[in-house]
Write a structure and sequence with these properties.
This protein has 545 residues and is an alpha/beta fold. The protein is built from 23 helices and 18 strands. The structure holds thiamine diphosphate. Thiamine diphosphate binds next to α16, α18 and α20.
Length: 545
């Protein structure tokens, strides 16, 4: 507990088990750490992940051995694939019996190894300070990810030996970019006909928004973001192209079709396949990040620059004054997005058009408010259409693309930013994967607003089946009465029965969260016949523009 306090941990999310009662008891006495008891370990792991995503400091989740530990794994894997710092702590059977077949034993370190940056077993009480420090240091250092420690039951019971104290939590600072790499990049840019900037998740983590805006204006070139990068370049900026990563060619992709040089800032290949931005493999890549690029046929790095992203962007701006030539017409792309959203805002059909839902969310949520969009068709609509003005205000999982993270994640977001609005936008499939955390929110008085997109189906899979097979099956299900369900948890329930009821329900629920730390569920029927219409329309769209 003292080591966790020394790392500045504020919350531990989890469920206790017989083998870690001493840790949980100690945490109860901690002044700085609040233990948030959850109703599923998987939810605890998603909470820790979103804490890490929003703060840059590792979120901590805790569970017992065996089944509890295994339940943590989805959020742990999600954190690693989403480049997010997280430390998972679980119990393990004692060293006195781990070497033989014994009750509840599975090799947890081996199970966590491929989904973390480091996984280890704590062999003694004396090892705790070094191992906890290492777990946090590795998790938080670029490229961030999850780490894992298993604490055997008998080690947990051991008295702390004299002189064993927490280690100082030092930080690793980024370096200046190399001069010669900046010059090489300047040379590539001097011959560019159609350069473009792509801002990825790393740009969010490294707080590179201001430097991106400066450089985009100085060079006067278009900037697209990845889904994770949403908001790092404000969507209302004249140079904004929007987000790339949609399953089919979207408006923003047309900016890349003609690009001959892509300056990729903090982009990670796991965010989406680079074939989407370099389909013909004829663009040169200038890779700007804190670490070297991964290898992909469609990501041919002409120049790689490692260093602090803002300093690198400013050094590039000094080396290449600009403005640069480019062919992408950001105005056209922005006009297409705005038109689609405005048509949606005025669409009064019931069930609601997805574009209407996105437009109403944007109207209800303040500039700095945080929306977490769960995985499904809902993510596709939000990622491509939801105008985002600040980094980390539209959170998606696009590394592992897991379902279920948004509702528990919203609890963590509300804990990190109690002053901001927080909304979880989830499909009816994903909602029932973590509905139990409504109880956590009500009990802990954590404000929460959940907007459920109701289509009685695993909508994204239905969409994909219809698109590729021409029909669908095994995707439809029934739903509970969402209002009664919410009320049974002590939350408010709203059933949207007409298009013009959504915005007032959102406003009321968000006010209830702000004023009374209230928890609300809004069930909104959505017309997903728009899904196929969208992919057909984008498929027919002719660029470049
Ligand atoms: C944990 C998990 N299980 C399955 C999937 C595969 N999958 C992706 S989207 C999706 C359907 C989501 O349905 P729903 O939550 O209702 O949202 P909708 O697509 O209808 O908007 C499924 C099954 C996944 N990504 N994650």
């Amino acid at each position: 507990m003292a080591c966790l306090e020394a790392e500045g941990v504020e919350f531990v999310f989890g469920i206790p088990g017989e083998e870690n009662i001493r840790l949980v008891d100690a945490l109860d006495r901690s002044e700085g750490i609040r233990y948030i008891l959850t109703r599923h370990e998987q939810a605890a792991s998603f909470m820790a992940e979103i804490y890490g995503r929003l703060t840059g400091a590792a979120g901590v989740c805790s569970a017992t051995l065996g089944p509890g530990a295994i339940n943590l794994q989805l959020g742990v894997a999600d954190a690693t694939t989403n480049s997010t710092p997280l430390v998972a702590l679980t119990a393990q059977v004692g060293l006195n019996r781990i070497y033989k077949e014994t009750h509840q034993v599975v090799d947890l370190v081996s199970m966590f190894a491929p989904i973390t940056k480091a996984a280890d077993l704590v062999p003694s009480a004396a090892a705790v300070p070094e191992m906890v420090r290492r777990a946090f240091k590795v998790a938080q250092t670029e490229r961030p990810g999850a780490t894992y420690l298993a604490v055997p039951e008998d080690v947990e019971k051991t008295e702390v030996p004299d002189g064993v104290v927490p280690l100082f939590a030092s930080r690793v600072y980024p370096e200046e970019p190399s001069r010669s790499q900046i010059e090489r990049a300047a040379q590539v840019l001097s011959g560019a006909r159609a350069p473009i900037l792509l801002a990825g998740h790393g740009a969010v983590r490294c707080d590179a928004s201001a430097a991106l805006v400066e450089l985009a204006e100085q060079w006067d070139i278009p900037v697209a973001t990845t889904f994770h990068g949403k908001g790092v370049f404000p969507d209302d900026h004249p140079n904004a192209l929007g987000a790339v990563g949609f399953m089919r060619h979207d408006y923003a992709n047309f900016g890349f079709d003609k690009a001959d040089v892509i300056v990729a800032v903090g982009y990670e290949l796991q965010e989406f396949d680079p074939v989407k931005i370099n389909p013909d493999n004829n663009a040169q890549i200038i890779h700007v990040h804190r670490f070297p690029a991964e290898v992909d046929e469609h990501y041919p790095v002409a120049v790689g620059i490692e260093g602090d992203l803002s300093r690198t962007l400013r050094a590039l701006g000094e080396a290449v004054p600009g403005p640069l030539k480019h062919e992408a017409r950001t105005a056209k792309t922005r006009e297409l997005l705005a038109e689609e959203l405005e048509r949606g805002r005025a669409d009064d059909r019931f069930p609601l058009a997805p574009q209407r839902v996105v437009a109403d969310i944007r109207s209800a949520v303040e500039h700095e408010g945080i929306v977490l969009a769960d995985t499904g068709a809902v993510k596709m609509w939000m990622a491509r259409l939801y105008p985002t003005y600040a980094p980390n205000t539209c959170l998606l999982s696009n590394g592992l693309s897991t379902m279920g993270f948004a509702l528990p994640g919203a609890l963590a977001a509300a804990l990190v930013h109690p002053d901001r609005q927080v909304l979880a936008a989830v499909g009816d499939g994903a909602f029932l994967m973590h509905v139990q955390e409504l109880e956590t929110a009500v009990r802990e008085r954590i404000p929460l607003t959940v907007l459920v997109w109701v289509d009685d189906s695993y909508g994204l899979i239905e969409w994909k089946m219809d698109m590729e097979l021409g029909h669908h099956n095994n995707v439809r299900f029934g739903n509970p009465d969402f209002v009664k369900l919410a009320e049974s948890f002590g939350a408010r329930g709203y059933a949207v029965g007409a298009a013009d009821q959504l915005l007032p329900a959102l406003n009321e629920a968000l006010d209830h969260a702000r004023n009374e730390q209230g928890v609300s569920v809004i069930a909104c029927p959505v017309d997903y016949s728009e899904n196929l219409r969208l992919t057909d329309r984008l498929g027919d769209l002719q660029g470049p523009f």
